[in-house]
Design brief:
Elements lengths: L1 E5 L4 H7 L1 H8 L10 H17 L4 E2 L2 H9 L11 H11 E4 L11 H7 L2 E7 L4 E8 L6 H6 L3 H4 L10 H16 L5 E6 L7 H23 L17 E2 H9 L10 E5 L10 H8 L7 H4 L5 E6 L2 E16 L4 E9 L1 H7 L19 E4 L8
Parallel strand pairs: 8-9
Antiparallel strand pairs: 1-2, 1-3, 4-5, 4-6, 6-7, 8-12, 9-10, 10-11
Helix pairs in contact: 2-3, 6-11
Length: 374
């Protein structure tokens, strides 16, 4: 068990809502604090800016955290009062009970499906990408395994690392900081199944372009320099390795219940999405026809990235909106444990309902075993 001081990504709203901060701003009789509210406001503003500047950083001692956060602030020439220092340090202190485990090797089937790929490593403390590379097999885990000294796992990696030693060292330090803070690196696949005359060279070119683009973002936004790149998270353009493993390892769904209503809810694939959140997203407006709405307790199968995420029984429908062409409906229902045991975390593809691809409206009415066009 260790104690660290990490500035979280949501530090600003937490800081503004802190009762200690509000007391500091409202009181004029605190020890070591100026009676002048303008001075206190200036001190508060400087500490606020300093916390924002250090989002994502982890410190292993209160002295190093205090030095980084307060030594360059002067609160309008009056220093940072003890009350304000303590308020900030209490918000960022964390007890790390156990280091997160190292990632497990990819199943052979998944590695084969990924082929040659471009990957990115993301720091969850500030949602920033700090490394991009290319490879195949378990290359995506190479730097983390090296940082955590997973010698046996490192033997599974194909090929040799081509980074400059300084880049490798900086990447290893960043990864160890992440794990020391109680977090873990998030591994994203930016593009996979790279196919060309020279797959490896093509992947290296894509990775190089990614580094260049994110480096430009760094320069334009004044983001602190990291290892071989810096920039924003890739969630809108990339997939977590864990999600791809789920997709490629998932068993196909058994025969779908007839009738049923399938809805594509992209947000259901979000890492850490709770059952309540998935249900709320699944209840958005759908083009549910009369046959769907009039079927008592029709199963509603929720999927994202071709993986079933939840199954509900619709108990009622209410009109959500109406256009000149379509009326959209919102269902109210409850989870069906029996159907969820059969279908969740399994792969469903358009061909299972006689389609070549999922419709753009996000819903499919599966009412009979007949196939369209037959």
């Amino acid at each position: 068990m260790a104690t660290v001081w990490t500035v979280p990504i949501d530090i600003t709203p937490r800081w503004l809502a802190s009762p200690e901060v509000q007391t500091f701003l409202a009181s004029n009789d605190l020890a070591d604090a100026s009676p002048d509210p303008r001075v206190r406001l200036a001190q508060f503003a400087e500490v606020t800016a300093s916390l924002g500047h250090h989002v994502g950083r982890t410190f292993t001692s209160v002295q190093s955290a205090s030095a980084a956060l307060f030594d360059r602030t002067d609160g309008g020439g009056h220093g940072v009062p003890v009350a304000l220092r303590l308020a900030a340090l209490r918000l960022i202190v964390t007890t790390v009970h156990q280091t997160r485990p190292a990632p497990k090797p990819l199943p052979a089937r998944v590695a084969e499906q990924l082929g040659v790929y471009v990957y990115a490593l993301l720091d969850p403390r500030n949602r920033s990408v700090f490394y991009a590379g290319s490879g195949r097999g378990n290359r995506v885990f190479g730097h983390v395994w090296a940082a955590l000294e997973e010698t046996e796992s490192l033997r599974l990696i194909e090929g040799k690392e081509t980074d400059h030693p300084e880049v490798t060292a900086a990447t290893i330090r960043r990864i160890r900081d992440i794990y020391d803070s109680g977090h873990e690196v998030e591994h994203y696949i930016v593009q996979h199944q790279v196919t060309a005359a020279d797959d490896d060279r093509t992947a290296e070119g894509i990775a190089g372009a990614l580094v260049g683009v994110l480096g430009l973002i760094e320069a334009e936004t004044d983001t602190p320099g990291l290892t071989n790149l810096a920039g924003d998270a890739l969630e809108l353009r990339a997939a977590l390795v864990d999600d791809l493993v789920l997709q490629y390892e998932a068993e196909p769904v058994p025969n779908l219940p007839t009738p049923c209503f399938l809805v594509e809810v992209k947000g259901a694939a979000k890492r850490g999405a709770t059952p309540d959140e998935i249900y709320a997203m699944a209840r958005q407006s759908w083009a549910a026809g009369n046959a769907v709405r009039e079927t008592a307790r029709i199963p509603v199968i929720v999927f994202a990235d071709n993986i079933v995420r939840a199954v509900y029984r619709a108990e009622s429908w209410a009109m959500a909106s109406r256009t000149t062409d379509t009326t959209l409906w919102r269902f109210t229902g409850s989870a069906d444990p029996e159907l969820e045991a059969q279908f969740t975390k399994k792969r469903v593809t358009p061909d299972r309902v006689g389609l070549k691809k999922w419709p753009t409206n996000g819903s499919v009415s599966h009412l009979t075993h007949a196939r369209p066009g037959r």
